[in-house]
Design goal:
Pfam families: DHU1_N, WD40
CATH superfamily of the domain at 138-209 and 327-377: Ribonuclease Inhibitor
Biased composition (Low complexity): 215-226
Protein name: U2A'/phosphoprotein 32 family A C-terminal domain-containing protein
Strand content: 25-35%
Keywords: Repeat, WD repeat
CATH class of the domain at 138-209 and 327-377: Alpha Beta
WD repeats: 579-614
CATH architecture of the domain at 138-209 and 327-377: Alpha-Beta Horseshoe
Number of strands: 43
């Protein structure tokens, strides 16, 4: 057996190497050797603390040359820290870390490095047992390298939004994971990523700081022996993991392996030293584990909550006669999702602690009930099967009495169950100069509609007043109609169903035209004199919405007024203006899909109204009110329901016959009066999709039960990843679980995109696989 190099020998060799390079030895490195020698003399584990941010360029080469000796020395582990900006260039710092990889124990890294550094770390891995990464500006986390020894991962205070398909796939021993104060918000993709961690026992996206219930404690403790705040409450120092990890290392027992050290620290319940409550209360076994992770909150570090400010969230747990009140701190957005805790507990059956609160059997039982009542694991409540198995059943007819629709549902469930992240595909004409005579121009979509008969076509209107017909499967522009006169955004579009080459377009300036796309140009050009076979109608000032009836004889227009105008398509005339139909302006007007006389209006006056042209619309058939201003309304494909969307995620489904509430989808609001929400149907009457202009999420819910199936998070390009929001959306009428979303960026310099979403294809699917999954048409499957 080879003799291990002693620490004193390492120090001597380091000094000799410095002499050879003509430099003075680094005090930081000498201090590391000295501290390790002291630990050895005390019969403690010989751990060396190396602060890379203190290593200068001159120190680099001697230390690098010494690394092979360190790896074969009596040093039992290296705790490596980069706490601030590092003077070493990225490749030097990386090579130094790699040279010491065999001995790495704790690694704390601050994001003072470039993307290539992080790609190397995340794709190749490290052999450390604790990794703490701060201030990352990566929006999508994709740690796929070999982290087979990693036990604890701290990702607090980072701008992480989501996870790559392979993230966490090589961390078999990871037990503790903290992602407090990140931008993670998606329950589905987060749970799917976390399921790749077979040893995960403790997870947190927020910190519950406990304040004991004064009413229950006051009778059991002496005021003279306790420290209280002005509300007579006891403050318990729950340890946030985002505190400096080198403070944690100082508290680790150097005589124990790191797993045992962390375990003993994490499962300790600490009563403040000045409080004798612990001697007065017999704490139940459930109480141990309520406050876990590390002792990192020190005096003065507990978040102060003023009397007049409500905390992010709070609740009280009872332990016998003792009530403990908990206040949320450092919460990531995912914690605001409805039923977040129950969803995570149900989805991660091996988890023992969530957000530093122990998971009890009663929590598990309640999580199963809550999940079943509020979520769909797979569409149509199907059980998970492989695609091959479903196809075998269909071909062999092994399931007696099953219809083709039943097989189709099972196939959809199998495909969706194979990937948590759907395929997102921006239409390729966007973001590039496409004009024949102006390479610097771009098309900026503002509204769009699928063609009613041709599965490959959609029309979109632009901010500059152009109308474009696109083959959205190939990305090829089929027809182009330039803006006429002053450029004004196209806000209303409607295809005629009986005359499928005709489309109505309404502009913000009130212009209303009927175009025949067969007569439009097939070349994108700035020539405004190109013919388009248009019919011009009387203007409707400040227009926002147009819609034709089921017989293509009439259409309605609404806008920033209390009025609605009725037009005759055949004659090109305006027949009537219905005045003062609402108390405030009418955002959207929609005809029924099957009755040529019924139509609905939605307004910021908080009302949705149903009207009948046969009754002379002086009085509505009924009025249904919401608590906020209504952004839009639409009929279900079979006209049984009205889907009303109000500001800030208030989405309700009404019975068309009398306006009674059928379903409230109970989407969590953002508490924003400008968060305009839009919702439409998908898969016939089966599902609804809903998105809002302050959010980058599309929510998919069952239209019959209200259960949430998935959230689809939009992803921008590069630095705009988290800057997208939903401006409009439509379900694909020909393909199950496909939709398109008009997504805008908060940056004024960025062009809006039409993003196609295929929920039956994974994000890593090939183009051929995605095309195959998009190819089968959709028919309504009922409830």
């Amino acid at each position: 057996m080879a003799t291990l190099t002693e620490i004193a020998t390492l120090e001597e060799k380091y000094i000799e190497l410095c002499k050879q390079h003509g430099i003075l030895p680094s005090t930081a490195i000498l201090s590391a050797f000295f501290e390790a020698e002291v630990k050895k003399s005390r019969n403690q584990r010989c751990i060396m603390n190396l602060y890379v941010d203190r290593v200068k360029y001159d120190d680099y080469h001697p230390l690098l040359e010494l690394s092979s000796e360190i790896n074969t020395s009596e040093v039992q582990g290296i705790d490596l820290f980069v706490r601030s900006s590092c003077s070493l260039e990225d490749h030097y710092a990386l090579s130094l870390i790699r040279s010491l990889n065999q001995k790495l124990r704790v690694v704390h890294l601050h994001d003072s490095f470039g993307k290539n550094f992080w790609r190397d770390v995340f794709f190749k891995g490290l052999s450390c047992k604790v990794l703490n990464v701060r201030s990352l500006h990566f929006h999508k986390l994709n740690i796929v390298g070999d982290f087979s020894q990693l036990h604890t991962l701290v990702l607090d205070n980072n701008r992480i939004v989501g996870f790559g398909e392979g993230c966490f796939s090589c961390m078999p021993k990871l037990t503790y994971l903290s992602m407090c104060d990140t931008l993670v918000s998606d329950l589905w993709t987060s749970a799917a990523a976390l399921l790749k961690l077979p040893s995960l026992k403790e997870l947190r996206f927020q910190i519950w700081i406990s304040c004991s219930d004064s009413s229950s404690i006051k009778s059991q403790s002496s005021p003279s022996s306790s420290t209280r705040d002005d509300k007579n409450t006891f403050i318990e120092s729950n340890p946030p993991i985002e505190a400096d990890i080198w403070e944690v290392v100082e508290q680790m027992d150097p005589s124990l392996p790191i797993e045992e050290t962390l375990h003993s620290m994490d499962f300790s319940y600490k009563i403040p030293e000045h409080d004798d409550l612990g001697s007065r209360i017999s704490l139940s076994s459930e109480l141990y584990g309520e406050v876990i992770m590390r002792e990192e909150v020190r005096k003065g570090k507990i978040q102060y909550v003023p009397k007049d400010v409500s905390p992010v969230g709070s609740f009280t747990r009872k332990f016998g006669n003792v009530g403990l009140k908990y206040i949320s701190s450092k919460a990531s957005p995912i914690c605001s999702e409805k039923h977040y805790r129950m969803y995570m507990i149900n989805s991660l059956p091996k988890l023992k602690v969530l957000d530093n609160l122990a998971i009890r059997k009663s929590d598990r039982d309640r999580a199963i009930e809550t999940y079943s009542a509020n979520f769909e694991d797979l569409p149509y409540r199907r059980k998970k099967e492989s695609v091959v198995r479903v196809l075998e059943k269909r071909e062999t007819r092994s399931s007696i009495g099953k219809s083709q629709n039943s097989y189709k549902r099972s196939l959809c469930a199998a495909k969706m169950g194979s990937s948590a992240s759907p395929l997102l595909h921006s239409l390729p004409f966007l973001g590039s100069g496409i004009y024949q005579d102006d390479d610097n121009s771009q098309l900026s979509p503002r509204q769009f509609e699928y063609h009613p008969l041709d599965p490959s076509l959609m029309v979109f209107g632009t901010l500059d007043g152009e109308v474009v017909v696109l083959n959205h499967e190939s990305g090829k522009i089929v027809r182009y109609i330039p803006s006429h006169g002053s450029q004004s955004s196209i806000l209303g579009l409607c295809w005629l169903k009986l005359y499928p080459s005709m489309v109505i377009a309404g502009s913000a300036n009130g212009s209303l035209k009927l175009y025949d796309i067969q007569k439009a140009s097939s070349v994108v050009t700035t020539n405004s004199h190109v013919t388009s076979g248009s019919v011009t109608f009387d203007d409707f000032d400040q227009l926002t919405s147009v819609h034709a009836n089921s017989t293509d004889q009439l259409f309605l227009a609404s806008g920033y007024s209390k009025d609605v105008a009725l037009y005759d398509i055949g004659s090109g005339t305006r027949l009537q203006v219905f005045a003062n139909m609402h108390q405030e302006h009418i955002n959207v007007v929609k005809f029924s899909n099957h009755s040529p006389f019924l139509f609905a209006t939605s307004s910021f006056d908080k009302d949705v109204k149903l009207w009948d042209l046969r009754l002379e619309p002086s009085r509505p058939c009924y009025t249904a009110s919401s608590t906020k201003g209504n952004v839009m309304v639409c009929f279900s494909p079979d006209d049984r329901y009205l889907l009303a969307s109000a500001v800030d995620n208030e989405v309700r489904q009404l019975l068309t016959v009398d306006g009674r509430l059928h379903l409230n989808f109970e989407i969590v609001p953002r508490v924003s009066s400008m968060n305009y929400t839009r919702s439409y149907y998908m898969n016939g009457n089966d599902y609804i999709i809903s998105g809002s202009c302050d959010e980058n999420v599309v929510r998919v819910c069952c239209a019959q039960t209200g259960r949430r199936l998935r959230d689809v998070t939009l992803e921008g390009n590069g630095s705009d990843f988290s800057m997208m929001f939903v401006q409009s959306l439509r379900g694909d009428p020909f393909r199950d679980f496909n939709m398109s979303v008009l997504a805008a960026y908060t940056r004024s310099s960025s062009v809006s995109e039409i993003v196609k979403v295929n929920m039956l294809a994974g994000r890593d699917s090939t183009e051929e696989e995605a095309h195959g999954l998009r190819s089968f048409p959709s028919n309504s499957m009922g409830g």
